[in-house]
Design brief:
The chain is an all-alpha fold and 75 residues long. It is 77% helix and 0% strand. Helix 1 packs across helix 3.
């Protein structure tokens, strides 16, 4: 079975948190996850395509998939 690593679970949990500003989120990505914001976004987008992520956080993953699809449709 396709299981999530602790880091992948941490990325999903991190994304579920509310952020007042993009700058605060970017700083927390660097401090808490030891990732650049670009790498974080890449990991998150890859996670959205995995069934294990959907099983772990279905509401969050479905919401983020909709947002991603809306952005792609606008391009």
């Amino acid at each position: 079975m396709d299981e999530l690593t602790p880091r992948e679970r941490a990325v999903l949990a991190f994304e579920a948190r509310p952020w007042r500003t993009r700058g605060a989120k970017d700083a927390a990505i660097r401090e808490e996850l030891d990732l650049s914001p670009t790498r974080y976004t890449q990991l998150l987008n890859a996670l959205l395509d995995r069934e294990a992520a959907l099983a772990f956080q279905p509401v969050l993953v479905n919401r983020l998939r909709r947002v991603r699809d809306e952005k792609r449709a606008r391009r």
